[in-house]
Design a protein that fits this description.
binds ribulose-1,5-diphosphate, 309 residues, 2 domains, Four Helix Bundle (Hemerythrin (Met), subunit A), alpha/beta, 11 helices, three-stranded antiparallel sheet, Rossmann fold, 10 strands, 46% helix
């Protein structure tokens, strides 16, 4: 049987588990399993956890939520490595459970705060598939807001279909458009708000999300449409305070062209892009609504521990 760490690594890499929050939670649950596995003593278990963490972090490079979750759990493990095995395990499992619960509460809090920003008759455009955005929109609907949603398909993997299905199953009037119709539809349908999720947010307020997000943000600015990012603080990059940048994932050309090639043509498949902070109106986080300029301060306040290790 395949080792659980290898299995979750493969699930994340192949996108059976996807979306920045879900991959962070999947990695956390996997480390929890490793924490309960056989070991002779604390140093041996710590070694196992570090090996597992390294493997999990290598599954996909762009969503900072993945290394943030793993690094946090390893930080707690390191801090408690003086404890004898059973006590070490107990402390660690408790911390992982608390960490996972915090992520779920963050999601809920963002939905609550975000719903208050939505007005009756708002026409919302979203791109890709973000659990955070889905939750926010569903909460607004449940709170009685009469809204409609336009989803972009999000080629090449069509995550927009997941969003459209989810929102429409919830009873929300939902339309689907091809990605290249975004500008025209934003103008003709008179979209009120664009709401997207995030994979990584830098201290500068620049934000990484699914490929195509940045051009939608530029269109939103041109048309004077609010551009809102809904994101848990787990997607903030503490290392960006020191100038570090994540690797931008480039996926297989076969996702774009079934055969993987067009004779004589190089097929490129970048999976993410960076939206400049200038095009972002607000971030909705579990700590409240903040402008891009406030990301720096939030990072210093909440992720000080990251910079100590
Ligand atoms: C998913 C994507 C999502 C963010 C936020 O990309 O870009 O917008 O991850 O999602 P992929 P969530 O499909 O390549 O993983 O709010 O669920 O964390």
């Amino acid at each position: 049987m395949k080792d659980i760490v290898d299995k979750i690594h493969d699930d994340i890499k192949s996108m059976r588990v996807r979306g920045a929050l879900d991959i962070a939670i999947a990695a956390s649950k996997t480390l929890k399993k490793v924490a309960t596995s056989d070991a002779k003593n604390t140093p041996q278990l710590l070694q196992k956890l570090k090996r597992a963490g390294k493997k999990l972090k290598s599954a996909r490079p762009t969503a900072i939520s993945l290394p943030n979750a793993v690094n946090y759990i390893l930080y707690i493990a390191d801090k408690n490595c003086h404890l004898e095995l059973n006590e070490f395990r107990r402390k660690l499992l408790e911390s992982i459970d608390r960490f996972i619960d915090e992520q779920k509460s963050a999601l809920d809090r963002i939905a609550e705060i975000g719903s208050n920003l939505i007005e009756d008759n708002d026409l919302i455009l979203t791109h890709c598939n973000s659990d955070t955005v889905d939750m926010l929109i569903k909460r607004a609907w449940d709170d009685g807001k009469e809204i409609e949603v336009v989803c972009t398909e999000t080629r090449p993997r069509y995550q927009g279909h997941l969003t459209a299905k989810e929102l429409s199953n919830h009873g929300i009037p939902t339309s689907l458009i091809v990605d290249s119709a975004a500008h025209l539809m934003m103008k003709e349908l008179k979209i009120d708000k664009v709401i997207v999720g995030a994979d990584t947010i830098y201290a500068s307020g620049d934000m990484i999300n699914k490929i195509g997000t940045s051009q939608i943000a530029i269109c939103a600015r041109e048309l004077d449409i609010d551009f809102i990012v809904a994101s848990e603080s787990i997607k903030f990059s503490p290392q960006s305070l020191l100038g570090s940048r994540v690797e931008m994932e480039e996926r297989d050309p076969s996702e774009v062209i079934k055969s993987g090639k067009l004779p004589g043509v190089r097929v490129l498949n970048p999976a993410f892009d960076i939206t400049n902070a200038d095009y972002i109106d607000i971030f909705v986080t579990e700590f409240g609504v903040i402008p891009p300029e406030a990301v720096y301060h939030l990072l210093r306040e909440k992720f000080g521990w990251e910079l100590e290790i």
